[in-house]
Amino acid sequence: xxxxxxxxxxxxxxxxxxxxxxxxxxxxxxxxxxxxxxxxxxxxxxxxxxxxxxxxxxxxxxxxxxxxxxxxxxxxxxxxxxxxxxxxxxxxxxxxxxxxxxxxxxxxxxxxxxxxxxxxxxxxxxxxxxxxxxxxxxxxxxxxxxxxxxxxxxxxxxxxxxxxxxxxxxxxxxxxxxxxxxxxxxxxxxxxxxxxxxxxxxxxxxxxxxxxxxxxxxxxxxxxxxxxxxxxxxxxxxxxxxxxxxxxxxxxxxxxxxxxxxxxxxxxxxxxxxxxxxxxxxxxxxxxxxxxxxxxxxxxxxxxxxxxxxxxxxxxxxxxxxxxxxxxxxxxxxxxxxxxxxxxxxxxxxxxxxxxxxxxxxxxxxxxxx
Length: 370
Fold this sequence. Notes:
The chain is α+β, with helices and mostly antiparallel strands and 370 residues long. The protein contains 8 helices and 21 strands. The chain has helices at residues 54-59, 80-84, 87-100, 111-117, 142-153, 247-253, 276-279, 336-344; strands at residues 31-34, 41-47, 50-53, 118-120, 125-127, 135-138, 169-171, 177-179, 188-191, 199-202, 206-207, 210-216, 235-242, 245-246, 267-269, 274-275, 283-285, 303-305, 308-313, 322-328, 355-357. The longest helix has 14 residues, at 87-100. Residues 1-9 have low confidence and may be disordered.
């Protein structure tokens, strides 16, 4: 699964890439990788087909702004230190990188600097970008909730009464979140065909879930809720998420407290985190919510992002993936600001590196079921 970011005409880089590339100068995602020359794990970004070592860029003196000129926040195996620095530092890093790698910049002719910081993407090893402290999975797609509800309770009672009043979620396992490409072992567990007596079995209904996740950059103190008006300042960025699910195990275990072992064996995340600044051109008005959200969840100008999402499946014998569904981030009934605000409304302290899964993102059509 992936989403596509097209390069616009406003920014031009000395790094060559096509207009259809996912990593133009407008993007500037953040991740972590093993530097192939030093074997040290550093924070990085990507432009075109090159991964750029931000820690080395910092050592070379290229981050000289007010928010990044001191400690080298990129010289870590996770992004957490940089994330905790807050939006002014995130913006400063983004602008600095764009200026450095712009067409005609002084860095464009710095052959020594480029050789120390730029590495071909297919020659490096990406690593898990964030030390994820806690993981919460929401259920924010109304179309998905309705489809599941129809299967369990029928169309007349598909949505529970609370669904349109609050973002439904549950606490997952951060310890089993792995990087995309990591092998996932088919789990074993209790299953029950008649929902009365279980048997021990390999999972025979292993499923994917097309989701996106939001990483918390700056947290809040225990007892001090996050307000909807500034919730986006706490969100570092968004990432793709496949929340693997063992459906046959889930059907037997989920009553009365929800999924447990069916969801804790693996969740796969992208190596790249896309910032909200990069997604700004894709911002659109959020769908109408009826009934109107309670005041603590009501935004003055509610918005979301128009991000196309696709899922393809490719076996070892196939030359290319076969697309099985397509959806869009805009189909979420509850947006990421509302998810975070609701999570912290009790005074729950969110921490740098916390991860909020959107829940399966489905659209209104059968082909859009994530």
